[in-house]
Amino acid sequence: MRAQFVLSEIGVGLRRNLTMTFAVIVSVALSLALFGGALLMNQQVSAMKDFWYDKVNVSIFLCNKNDAESTPKCAKGAVTSAQKEQIESDLKKMDIVESVYKESADEAYKHYREQYGDTPIASTITPDQMQESFRVKLKDPEKYKVVATAFAGRDGVQSVQDQRNILQNLFDLMKGMNIAALGVMGLMLVIALMLIVNTVRVSAFSRRRETGIMRLVGASSFYIQVPFIMEAAFAGLLGGAVACVMLLVGRYFLIDHGLALADKMQLVNFIGWDAVLSVLPLVLVIGLLMPAMAAFIALRKYLKV
Predict the structure, then answer these.
(1) DSSP reduced 3-state for 196
(2) What is the pLDDT of residues 141-186, one digit of tens each?
(3) What is the number of other CB atoms lying within 10 angstroms of the CB of residue 145?
């Protein structure tokens, strides 16, 4: 097979179906950009979980004298010194506990004033209304229920709270956005495949005279089909390249510059450039193979030899 002939046929096909080829490139680019974005979003959620779950604590809030009337669990009154010592001792004996920090009512009041000192309700809060607590760092944050089960019903314990729950809604929202992106990606992918099939069909029809002559001179099916397959693969590869540029530009403007989320949200552990670069080869490979396979299947129906 002469490479010059194949390349010339690819050029002819692209020129004859320039509009449809452009539509294929755009649809492939959008679908693959959404695909790459979904992969990066999934990595971002995993990175944030690893970052935050390593920092969150389990908080065991103790009863104070004001909880006796309002909280059934504190009906026996405020926590005693013996109860606090027993709770702290039992926590330190647990294998899953990495460290235990005791926060007094005065320390809790100080932290509260630092966070909410400008709000109207802050002026009505007094130190004796604040709860003492134990802040427990677990070796494995997933084992929160072990601590909750062991201490939630104890005398002197008002509640056991897992700070992961505060973050879970954010993670659920990001997962929902990820699923939505995958859904749109699937729709765009179907549109891209339909465009590829139609483009190949129109291209084969417009060159039916040439392919007919090639049949008469004994050209093989593969020899006739290769230019059409390579046209689709070339358009898909261009779409994949555009998708890669969109992912790089998106990472650059959303996180580093433009919106500069890395500066505005310094507590968030954003994925690095290495994560983005690791996705690009997969996007290019899919951009190359997907149209080629679609063209091959379409040719079996519309270009029989």
Answers:
(1) helix
(2) 777 788 888 888 788 888 888 777 766 776 777 778 778 877 888 8
(3) 12
